[in-house]
Design brief:
Length: 196
């Protein structure tokens, strides 16, 4: 399986989601940003950093793409089983994300939108749903992730959110909602892959 995670804008949670999914599926990561924090947490057997030719013939890999779509990314995006577009639900972030979605759709329609760091019952999240409908993008699967320190701790603990939650105790309680959100994303990935 090939999963691409991308957005044009930085700070949307691409890398933390990529690392959690890499640990979950036991996949390697290919990153196109030279200064990725991933090099501090993954060895060279599990991480390839390149901003030029990107191998598109790999299996069981997650592509962590930042910035605009380059000529090297196009073949990978076309061959990806799933493209995950995470974003924060802020006006500037949503505007850039709409551009990213419209740039990816001609290459691959198998997209999952991941509004990140959502607060329950947030008005801006409801506004997002209206915006997606207004731009005729409400047919795309949506999998919100709640805000949680668990995503930052994926780096330091070298464990998935589900593994940290399964330990129990305070983390078990605090991480239960974000662990459920990630289970929803994983189920959506598996379902989308089968449907392709």
């Amino acid at each position: 399986m090939r999963i691409s995670i991308m957005n044009f804008k930085g700070g949307q949670g691409k890398t933390s989601i990529a690392l959690n999914l890499a640990y979950t599926f036991d996949f390697g990561i290919v990153a196109n940003e030279t200064y990725t924090v991933l090099k501090n947490y993954l060895d060279t057997d599990h991480l390839l950093i390149t901003n030029e030719t990107i191998p598109n013939n790999l299996d069981d890999v997650i592509y962590d793409f930042g910035g605009g779509i380059t000529k090297y990314m196009i073949p990978v995006l076309k061959k990806s089983d799933i493209i995950i577009i995470p974003f924060l639900v802020e006006q500037a972030d949503v505007q850039v994300t709409l551009e990213a979605i419209n740039s990816v759709l001609p290459l691959n329609k198998n997209i999952i939108l991941v509004p990140n760091k959502i607060k329950e019952e947030e008005q801006s999240y409801k506004a997002l749903l209206d915006t997606l409908k207004a731009f005729s993008l409400d047919h795309l699967p949506l999998c919100p992730l709640r805000g949680s320190t668990a995503l930052q701790n994926v780096f330091t603990e070298h464990k998935t959110v589900a593994q940290m939650q399964a330990v129990g105790g305070l983390n078990g309680f605090n991480y239960r909602k974000i662990a459920n959100d990630f289970n929803n994303l994983i189920n959506l990935i598996n379902t989308s892959k089968k449907d392709k």
